[in-house]
Write a structure and sequence with these properties.
By secondary structure, the protein is mainly alpha-helical. The N and C termini lie far apart (51 Å). It has one domain.
């Protein structure tokens, strides 16, 4: 294999997609609950006794775990990008290998930006829950 980092990029893509999808799903659940009960608004439509605070607590826990996963994925990507970027050896002996190396580097850097943005979205979501 000319550049094994391509396999890592595929795996990191899948991990990112799972993280992103889960955050969007949790956000949808929270939005439905928020609209249904009208809490966290200026004029709640239901009494506080009707709100399932244990479910909100679980939702907050999930977000904390997702943020931790996002940070771990980001640290992994940082290390992979740095290591792959410093690879200058016999792997780059041909023009095709050098092109593949640059494309892989670009893909990894793009994935890192996506993970960072998703982590920021999770942080914003966590702030909304903890109001």
């Amino acid at each position: 294999m000319v550049n094994p980092y391509i396999l890592l990029e595929i795996i990191l893509h899948d991990l990112y997609m799972q993280l992103d999808t889960t955050i969007w799903e949790l956000r949808s659940i929270f939005k439905v609950e928020q609209e249904h009960f009208g809490y966290l608004t200026a004029s709640p439509t239901k009494p506080l006794s009707d709100i399932d605070f244990s479910a909100l607590h679980l939702l907050a826990d999930y977000i904390i775990m997702l943020r931790a996963g996002s940070e771990a994925l980001l640290l992994t990507l940082d290390a992979v990008v740095e290591h792959q970027g410093s690879t200058v050896s016999a792997m780059l002996a041909t023009e095709r290998a050098a092109l593949l190396h640059r494309q892989t580097q670009t893909a990894l850097e793009y994935r890192r930006r996506l993970v960072r943005a998703t982590g920021e979205r999770a942080a914003t979501f966590e702030k909304r829950i903890n109001k």
